[in-house]
Amino acid sequence: MDISESAQLVINWLDKNQSQFIEMANQIWQSPELGFKEFKASRQQADFLENEGFSITWNIGDLNTAFVAEWGEGKPILGFIGEYDALPGLSQKNQPTKEAIEDGEPGHGCGHNLLGTGAVASAVAVQKWLKSNSESGTIRYYGCPAEESGGGKVYMARAGAFDDLDAALNFHPDNINMPAKGGAVGVNATYFRFFGRTAHAGGAPHKGRSALDAVELMNVGVNYLREHVKDDVRMHYIITEGGKAPNIVPEEAEVYYFIRAAKPDYLAEVVERVHKVAEGAALMTETTFETRFDGGCSAVLSNHYLADLQYQAMQLIGSIAFTQEEIDFAQVINESFTGTNSDHIDDMIEYFKPSPDMVAELDEYRDKPLIGGNFIALDERIIETGSTDLGDLSQIVPVSELGTTCWPTGCPGHSWGNVAASGMSIGHKGMMHAAKIMAATAIELYSDPSHLVDIRQEFEQKTGGKPYIPPMPEDVKPPRYEQNGD
Predict the structure, then answer these.
(1) For burial by CB atoms within 10 Å, which of 130, 142, 245, 263 has the most?
(2) Sorting pLDDT into bands at 50, 70 and 90, what band is 131?
C-alpha cells in the first residue's frame, strides 16, 4: 500500500502554509481555557474553517463550545478530531524553566492547542486536494470540548455526531512519533453520599447514626473487592465530606469514586458491585445513601490497520529535524525532572518492552532530549490505566490515535514542561508532523476506499457487533457557561 504522489503534494502544501496554523496554535496557547469554556479557541477554529468553505454546526450534544465543520459530499466520510481545553493550575511562561505567567491559572499541559490545530490543518489540506482533483468524499472537523475532565465526546457520541463516519483521524502530543495500537480503560465517576443522624459523640453516641462510618465501611469493602476483580480494574476515591466536628456524629458524609476497566460490560459489572458494597455499608450503619453520577467514558479500541497506514505515511514524510536551539531548550527541561536522557529511554524500553530491533533504534536517542525519528506502534500489548473520551469515539468508528514528538523525553504528562514545549517550535514541529501524517493517510483512504473495508472488518471483530451504549445516562446534561461568565 504505497502512499500516492498526491499525498506528497498535500505535504508540500502544509509546509508552505504552516505559519497560519502555528499562529492559531500560539493564540490558543496564549489564552488557555478550561473544559466547557473554550469560547475563544472554538470560535477561532470555526471561523477559520468557515472562511475556507466549511459549513459550521454548533451546539453538538448540547455543548455550546462544540461544533462540526463539514465540506464535500458523498462517501467516504472521514472525521478529523480536535480538542482545545487546557488544564488548571499549569500556567507557564514560554521558557525552559518553571515560572508561571499567572499563578493558579490554566495552561496547555496536554498540548491541546496543538491537538486541535493540527487536525484543522490536516482537514484543510485534504479539502484542497479533494477540490483540486474533483474527488468525491466528505471531510469533517470535530471541535470537541472538555476532554480533560468533562467527557465532551461522550455527549457528542450520545447525540449521534459520529455515527456515519467511515473512519476518524486524530493525534495527541507525545514524546515519540508513533501510531497507537494499544488501548485504555473506561471510567465511571460517581459520588456516594450517606445520610445518618446527628448526636453528641461523647454524651449520647448511641442516639446517632454516623454517615462517616458508612463511608469508611464502604471504602473498606471496596478495598477487599480489589482482590476479586480483573487486573485491568482500578478503583480510587477521595472523601469529599467527613463531618463538621469530632464531637458531632456526622449526619452527612460523601466519597467520590473513579472506577475503571478495559471492557464496557465488565466496567458496568464492577460498578454494580461497588454499589452493592455501598448498600451493605448503609445496612451496617443504619444509614441511607444516594448516588450522583459525575461522568464517564468508554475504553479505547485502537484500529491496527489504520495505525499501519499512518506508519506508512510517516515513512514517506521522514523524521522531525530539531535545531540545536530546540535541543538545548529540551535539555534544560529534561534536567528539571528526575533522571538523565538515558534514563528516560530506559523507562520507554521498560514500558513498551519492544523487540531488539526497536531497542536498538531507541538506543540512538540515549544522549538526546528529543526523539525525532518515527517508530512503529510499540504499545500493541498495552492497556493504559488512564481514561479518555476518545474511547467513546473508538467504540463507534475506527480510530488510531497518532502520537508525535511535541515534548522532551523527560516531560511527564500534565506538566509545566509540556506547557513550555507546546508554546514554541518543538510543539509546532510535532503538530505539523501529525498534520502531514493524518493528511497523507486520508488521501490514501479517499484514493483507495478498499482500505476502509479492512478497517471496518477489524472494527466489527473487536466490538463483536455490539452497539455503542453511552456511559452517561440520558438525564445527565453537560454544564453550560456563557463567555466571560459562569
Answers:
(1) 142
(2) very high
Element (H, E) at 127: helix 112-133
- The SS3 call for residue 30 is helix
Q: Which amino acid is residue 151, in one-letter code?
A: G
DSSP-derived secondary structure for 332-365: HHHHHSSS-HHHHHHHHHHHH---HHHHHHHHTT
Q: What is the pLDDT of residues 206-253, one digit of tens each?
A: 999 999 999 999 999 999 999 999 999 999 999 999 999 999 999 999
**Distances in Å between the alpha carbon of 483 and those of 39, 41, 103, 145, 249?**
6, 12, 22, 14, 43
Tell me which amino acid residue 245 is: A
Q: How far apart are CA 104 and CA 423, in angstroms?
A: 18
Spatial distance between the Cα atoms of 152 and 478, rounded to a whole number of angstroms: 8
Assign 429 to helix, strand or coil: helix
**Which domains does the chain show, CATH number per domain?**
5-183+299-463 (3.40.630.10), 186-297 (3.30.70.360)
Residues 167 and 79: their CA atoms lie apart, in Å, by 6
If you compute the radius of gyration of the chain from its CA atoms, what whole number of angstroms results?
Answer: 24
How many degrees, rounded to 5, is the angle at CA 59 between CA 53 and CA 60?
Answer: 85
Q: Where are the beta strands (DSSP E) in 362-459?
A: 383-384, 399-405
- Phi, psi (deg, nearest 5) at residue 70: -130, 140
C-alpha–C-alpha distance, residues 325 and 426, integer Å:
10
Q: Which of 259, 263, 257 is nearest to 298 (CA)?
A: 263
How far apart CA 277 and CA 452 sit, in angstroms, is: 45
Instruction: Write down the pTM of the prediction.
Output: 0.93
Do 153 and 469 meet the contact criterion of CB atoms below 8 Å apart? Answer: no
Percent share of the chain, pLDDT over 70 = 99
Task: Name the residue with cell 475532565.
Answer: 149
Q: What percent of the chain has pLDDT over 90?
A: 92
Picking from 153, 191, 111, the residue whose alpha carbon sits closest to that of residue 297 is: 153
Widest Cα–Cα separation across the chain: 85
358-371 pLDDT, tens digit each: 999 999 999 999 99
- Please count the residues of the chain: 486
Residues 6+ apart with CB under 8 A from 367: 341, 342
Alpha helices in 354-423 (DSSP H): 356-363, 390-394, 416-422
In the chain, what are the helix, strand and coil shares in percent, each to the nearest 5?
45, 20, 40
In terms of DSSP bridges, do strands 399-405 and 167-174 run parallel, antiparallel, or are they unpaired?
Answer: parallel
- Dist CA 96 CA 98 (whole Å): 7
Supply angle C-alpha 370, 371, 373, rounded to 5: 150
Element (H, E) at 189: strand 186-195
